[in-house]
Amino acid sequence: MNPAQTAITTPQPQPIFLKNYLPPAFLVQQVHLNFLLDSTQTRVISRLELERNPASTQANLPLELDGQNLKIINLQLNGQCLTEADYQLTEQQLILPQVPDSFVLEIEVEIDPLNNTALEGLYQSSGNFCTQCEAEGFRRITFYPDRPDILSKFTTRIEADKSRFPVLLSNGNLIAQGDLDNGKHFAEWQDPFPKPAYLFALVAGNLHAVKDSFTTCSGRQVALELWVEEQNLHKCEHALRSLKAAMQWDEENYGREYDLDIYMIVAVDDFNMGAMENKGLNVFNSACVLAEPKSETDAAFNRVESVVAHEYFHNWSGNRVTCRDWFQLSLKEGFTVLRDQQFSADMNSAAVERIQQVSMLRTAQFAEDAGPTAHPVRPESYIEINNFYTLTIYEKGAEVVRMLSELLGKETFRKGADLYFARFDGQAVTVDDFVACMAEVSGLDLSQFMLWYSQAGTPEVAASGVYNPTEKTYTLTLKQRTPATPGQPVKQPLLIPIKMGLVGAAGVNIPMEVNGEFWSTERVVQLKEAEQSFTFHHLEAEPVPSLLRGFSAPVKLSFDYSREQLAFLMTNDSDGFNRWDAGQRLALLAIQSLVAQQQAGETLELDPALTSAYEKLLKAPVSDPAILAEMLLLPSEAYLAEQYEQVDIDAIHQASEFARTSLAKALYAEFLRLYQDHHSSADWSPEASAVAARRLKNVCLTWLVATEKPEALQLAEQQFKQANNMTDQLAALTCLAHAKDASVGKEALEAFVKQWSQDALVMDSWFSVQASRPYPDALDKVKTLQAHSAFSMKNPNKVRALISAFVNQNRVNFHAKDASGYQFLADKVIELNQLNPQIASRLVIPLTRFKRMDKVRQNLMKIELERIKQEKLSADLFEVIEKALQ
Ligand code: ZN
């Protein structure tokens, strides 16, 4: 009974449609679970108190319980044993055609956690038991109506061997525990809050806790416990600090107080996603909770802070108020991502946080929106819900809620959130319910706004301006269109909030006057039509428009800026985000002209405007090192690729490399001085200023080694050897390992693995550095590394560290013209299809994005997709491959 094997379903899995939603036929008042834990033969005995749903639209429906890979041991209805004549059993369900209106059902099943490599339901990680039930994992534990609109009160009894599993945890409060015969013990947990099955959790193992406490705004003491394996006890402090900060932040900013007396987090090494918000018992991928300066980078610290906050915020946006069905996934995820973004902005540099979010959104999410799996923030159908935990649901979903907060204003938005939590507490609701609260408190008509939830694709806004010197007017014209996406050929105009200002020659925002209306110096313009014009009056000279400030909408905005205007905005825009974006636009122009030169076979020549803009940045007094570090980064090759209908992978790579080395050579002295100014041998500090200095310094180091000068490489070597923290050590290692001559990094890579072979998380970085090495020798290295003792195809972090890193962070070599990268990926996807369908289906995505490639690559990619299609596919892969080849 291998769960991963039976995850492979019939050849044609069927889609489920939002429009077919029906309220449940039965409700579960109470559920008692009893687990007799065993690696290969766990018994789960459940007792469900069921009754017909008065709100059900049809009478006398059969009881349908979901269940997968479960071996039935015993079934009893109101104490009477059921025989096979009393029920029907399919691959997916247990159906009882004749049941009373109210009854007790007792179900005993057997499951096999040890061989559960899909990591859904109950499984083992490092020998410990843990569960993952979102979205539909509970049905792999027992038969149950596994849908988020059935909320029930859970009690859980766990019985296990005491010496191997001394710690037994579940949701809610511990109500009983004790020793049993045969070296066993038990614990019983009760969760007073009704919840859907996807929020159930159980953990049992040899774990150790770091404990703390938090006093809520109403004075209640909450016990905080972070459970980890013993060797990780020194990596807990940062997560606990982040948790307390998040608890306080949610009280102050959303009026949300924690509701149980205990909040537990467990770190596990084998986890498909980042973390899971189970009620009172979060389960985390260890990569998103453990952090200690010697072994984790500043970026990892930042990730821990935001994921801990994210899962905590779900206690209200997701748990107390949950989703009616999985089409509403962004109701909890989009809103919770926005909340964690707001938190991170308050804890760190707000501008840098925004820059990093937007960079991710407009490379990765825009690419998703332009590919074969594009879907709206609220999808209309799916085959496998696990395929919809996407950047569109999470990140674009967050942007949509952010736009609501921009449109309503901060205070009114807060009123809307308060109303939402008050009105729907304890319920499973929809995106419409959420937006209706926002409409109610603001009086706004948000009907056009709802298109953001139903239309897929990234809207394009083309802006243009005409200055009339005699009239002293400036007319700004905005046009919008959204390209067709699969299944949505025609799009309607959206309501797009465009925050803008007009910057005058002196570098200040000019007060805006439009047809007698006074707008002050900044304004959120509402673009509602396909095309709209605004004429500004009383302008003595042509202003420079600063559009989409703070990235006020998830769109592609174009404006025909001159290089001078961009250089001007880079220093003068009052909006920090747009100063950065002006620099990105300038770099984009320069690299795009290099791409054109490369394609025309000309000698490459870098636009001097970019060099002088960089020189100006480097020579100016450093007011904000964190922002400067971001401004010194060139747009990624992935972002460059996004700018083209036809992507020339090689030309983009050549052009980027040329820009990088030219700038590095031209400005070597400036980069060196900045490096030295921000390099310190002082003790590591978590202060924002120290983080910013490390970031700036390491960005400079990367520029320096781009020249391949021996003295630059020596500097990297020195930093590698002397580093007292992982941020500096890994940055230096990357510089060395990515030097053109592969032998340069050899020694450091060996020293690193020797130092860190016992630390699984650090080993992930060691794999990734090698997989992302931008030279053709990378693939062979990746293949060799698969045999390394620290690598395992069964561990998602390792697959991401080695295989995903090659596929996603090594674009030129993944897209090698000999198809070696494509063939390798297809082989891995086929292997993972058996082991872990969720990971397989995420991994294959880059292979499905062939539409914008040249004909040769398109064919090579399709050949590999066809090869995968020959396999007996899981529903997850079936859906993605099917959409790609349509
Ligand atoms: Zn979430």
Automatic annotation (TrEMBL):
EC number of this enzyme: 3.4.11.2
Protein name, UniProt field: Aminopeptidase N
Residue ranges of coiled coil: none
SUPFAM superfamilies, alphabetized: Leukotriene A4 hydrolase N-terminal domain, Metalloproteases ('zincins'), catalytic domain
Location of the Peptidase M1 alanyl aminopeptidase Ig-like fold domain: 457-559
InterPro entries, alphabetized: Aminopeptidase_N-like_N, Aminopeptidase_N-like_N_sf, PepN_Ig-like_sf, Peptidase_M1, Peptidase_M1_dom, Peptidase_M1_pepN, Peptidase_M1_pepN_C, Peptidase_M1_pepN_C_sf
Domain Peptidase M1 alanyl aminopeptidase C-terminal: 564-886
Keywords: Aminopeptidase, Hydrolase, Metal-binding, Metalloprotease, Protease, Zinc
Reported cofactor(s): Zn(2+)
Matches recorded under Gene3D superfamilies: 2.60.40.1840, 3.30.2010.30, Neutral Protease Domain 2, Peptidase M1, alanyl aminopeptidase, C-terminal domain, tricorn interacting facor f3 domain
Boundaries of every Peptidase M1 membrane alanine aminopeptidase domain copy: 239-450
Reaction equation(s) it catalyzes: Release of an N-terminal amino acid, Xaa-|-Yaa- from a peptide, amide or arylamide. Xaa is preferably Ala, but may be most amino acids including Pro (slow action). When a terminal hydrophobic residue is followed by a prolyl residue, the two may be released as an intact Xaa-Pro dipeptide
EC class of the enzyme, as a word: hydrolase
All residue ranges annotated as the Aminopeptidase N-like N-terminal domain in the record: 89-199
Keyword Zinc: yes
Source organism: Marinospirillum insulare
UniProt keyword Metal-binding present: yes
